[in-house]
Amino acid sequence: MKANLTKTNQKKFRILEILDLMPHKEAKTLKKKLPEILGVTRQTMAKYCNAQLEDNCDMTTSHFFTLCKILNVEPLELIRLPKNQKPPKKIKDLRENELSKNLGLTK
Questions:
Q1: Which listed site, 28, 30, 33, 41, has its alpha carbon 20 to 30 Å from 22?
Q2: pTM beyond 0.85, yes or no
Q3: What is the spatial distance between Cα 9 and Cα 34, in angstroms, rounded to a whole number?
Q4: Could you tell me which residues are beta bridge partners of residue 52?
Q5: Taking a C-beta distance cutoff of 8 angstroms, is the pair 80, 12 a contact?
Q6: Rounded CA gap, 27 and 57, in Å?
Q7: 97 close to 61: Cβ distance less than 8 angstroms
Q8: What is the pLDDT of residue 6?
Q9: CA R_g for the chain
Q10: Contact 17, 27 (CB under 8 A)
Q11: How far apart are CA 85 and CA 73, in angstroms?
Q12: Are residues 8 and 71 in contact, defined by beta-carbon separation less than 8 angstroms?
């Protein structure tokens, strides 16, 4: 895992970072199954994994929250927010649609 990422190549979603923390075999299997679980193509999944911080976000809310559940992470652990964007203060009090709006996700 690369520890020294510059602003221009930071990934928007920490999917690959989270998978890297898993045992290799489990991560490899899950990476292959994620597109099927989400109901997207491998290309779309690659797009999610490789989206840059400055890219427009086009991951749907349902895919985002499904990934959070599958990877067993909180929403703010999966997304990397730009430095000028603050996370919602009371994340647990927000409904899913409010949280997705705050994180810049699409419906």
A1: 41
A2: no
A3: 23
A4: 11
A5: yes
A6: 24
A7: yes
A8: 46
A9: 14
A10: no
A11: 20
A12: no
Q: What gap in Å lies between CA 85 and CA 19, rounded to an integer?
A: 25
Residue 11 phi/psi, 5° resolution? -75, 145
Give the Å distances, CA to CA, from 69 to 80, 84, 86, 100: 17, 27, 23, 15
Which residue bears the tokens 């749907």? 60
The single-letter code of the amino acid at 1 is M
Two tokens, residue 58: 């086009």
Q: For every one of its 107 residues, what pLDDT tens digit does the chain have, with 9 covering 90 and above?
A: 545 544 457 888 999 999 999 999 999 999 999 999 999 999 999 999 998 888 776 788 899 999 999 999 998 889 887 666 666 555 555 555 566 665 666 55
